[in-house]
Write a structure and sequence with these properties.
The chain has 16 helices and 14 strands. The chain has 507 residues and is of the alpha/beta class.
Length: 507
């Protein structure tokens, strides 16, 4: 009868010892790989230290002091064996072994810390239970400490979409013990995901004067302060923006922040502000020559119609000069910003019996054309509203709002409509706390606080700068008294800035 031999305890111990040895070898190999990924080898002080240690080890070998050291750390029974091995190897082999040993020890010393940190974050990622269709788990390739507060994880994520990580955002925060700032794919490698982490929460208050100091380019505004610092955005690259969220969350402050930023950072800028609540929110801007206020629906329709016509004129102008987009400095044309506060009053769905049904449909049509086509013409749209759904703003217009600033929403559904996820509904009840969305990137920010009296002061300074021609301007039309005849007359003329308006900052 054949019987299977049971493994003895001796064999089991030997197998465990062998497995442990193999595991240690692989771990050492991984530690060395981490060491090679660091920049320690490029630092002059580290190179000098290594060469010094190498010289010391060679000197010890030449003077046979290495034998004394080896014997000091070994049992007496091995002393004679050490002498014999040293005699047989010779000085050349001893120097080689000393050099290799020092290199291996150096690699271990450099790579051990990064290896432990990498394993820590790898365990955190593993706890998310994310797997691709081929049962592959995400692998943490690199951990980079950007500052005392921020870290960057580079994760190999072939087969896993970015949305999978977004759905695990709260779990990831709990798993790694840090706040998740943002998650996005690398621009040059769609198989790798960048995860930015921070160890301390956002500030509750960001002063406007501190934020505006970070504004460097024309036609730009401060989005807010993230865990990584101040985020700025150019409307040239955007080009359209939507601001949404519940009342009291900081929507009006966000809108004013954008408007004042654009006015302060830019020359050759014409702004149209539409507010159907009587213009209370935008009344402070009416003293500026390059700002036109619109307060009712018929006037809004005529203004949008004029800007659609202006867009078409600009396309013909670009065709005539053989260019693809407007350059304000080159073409002596203003960049135009259309801001509509509580845009649902103008773009929302209404029944046919509504007194302004025809006007609202026309406004939707004009706004849709501008949202789809106006980018190259230097015309940009900013929409602000408390309500985001299909009945408030047509989907075709929403789809062209590339940038989104979402302050806190009352329900996850409203957040989904605005951002495509529920992040805005989970924001803390801090005025000015928002989610900045551009493309597939979502970043939590604190919007700078600009008070009413500060707006008044900055508008007054802008007025002085414009009147003294420190800032160039050109008013396209007097929107407070628009007539069809004036609109028709304006359609036949290119909107060209005055020749003596001066230059602008780099676009």
């Amino acid at each position: 009868m054949n019987t299977k031999t049971k493994p003895t305890s001796k064999n089991q111990a030997r197998d465990k010892l062998f497995d442990s040895a193999v595991e240690c070898c692989f771990m050492y190999f991984d530690i060395c790989k981490q060491a090679l990924k660091t920049d320690s080898f490029t630092k002059k002080e580290n190179i000098a230290l290594f060469l010094s240690l190498l010289s010391l080890s060679w000197a010890l070998v030449y003077k046979d002091q290495h034998l004394y050291i080896l014997k000091s750390f070994s049992f007496e029974i091995f002393h004679s064996a050490i002498d014999n091995v040293s005699y047989k190897l010779g000085i050349a082999w001893e120097l080689t072994i000393a050099t290799v040993s020092l290199i291996l020890v150096t690699l271990f010393a450099i790579g051990y810390g990064p290896f432990i940190i990498l394993k820590k974050y790898q365990k955190g990622i593993d706890r998310l239970s994310l797997k691709s269709g081929l049962n592959e788990k995400p692998r943490v390739l690199k951990v980079e400490h950007l500052s005392e507060n921020r870290s960057r994880l580079l994760v190999k994520s072939e087969g896993l979409g970015q949305e999978r990580y977004q759905s695990k955002l709260d779990d990831l925060r709990a798993s790694v013990g840090q706040m998740v700032e943002s998650i996005k794919y690398l621009e040059h490698d769609n198989t790798c995901v960048e995860i930015f982490l921070a160890s301390r929460p956002l500030e509750h208050l960001v002063k406007y004067e501190d934020a505006i100091a970070k504004l460097r380019s024309s036609y730009s505004f401060v989005v807010g302060k993230s865990l990584g610092g101040i985020i700025t955005q150019s409307i040239v690259d955007l080009p359209h923006l939507m601001i949404g969220g519940t009342s009291g969350g900081g929507k009006s402050n966000a809108l004013n922040n954008v408007l004042v930023n654009l006015l302060e950072s830019s020359n050759n800028l014409q702004m149209y502000l539409i507010d159907l609540k009587g213009g209370l929110e935008i009344k402070a801007y009416e003293s500026l020559k390059n700002v036109s206020l619109v307060r009712d629906i018929p006037e809004s329709v005529m203004t949008l119609k004029f800007l659609v016509d202006e867009m078409e004129r600009r396309y013909k102008f670009l065709e005539s000069i053989g260019k693809k987009k407007i350059d304000p400095k080159r073409d002596s044309l203003n960049r135009i910003v259309i801001a509509i506060d509580e845009c649902t009053d103008l773009l929302g769905k209404v029944p046919r019996t509504h007194s302004d049904y025809q006007h609202i449909n026309q406004a939707i049509e004009h706004c849709d054309k501008l949202a789809r086509k106006a980018r190259a013409c230097g015309i940009h749209i900013v929409l602000a509203t408390q309500k985001i759904d299909q009945s408030s703003i047509p989907t075709r217009i929403q789809e062209n709002m590339n940038g989104r600033i979402a302050v806190k929403t009352n329900t996850p559904e409203n957040s989904m409509r605005l951002l495509g996820n529920n992040k805005a509904s989970k924001l803390s009840d801090i005025s000015g706390r928002a989610i900045w969305s551009i493309g597939s990137t979502f970043t939590e920010v604190q919007i700078p606080l600009i008070k009413d009296d500060e707006i008044d002061i900055r508008i007054a300074n802008l007025k002085i700068a414009i009147e003294s021609k420190q800032k160039s301007h050109f008013t396209l039309l007097d929107s407070t008294s628009v007539s069809k005849e004036e609109t028709t007359k304006e359609q036949n003329t290119y909107v060209v800035a005055d020749a003596d308006t001066g230059g602008e900052k780099d676009d």
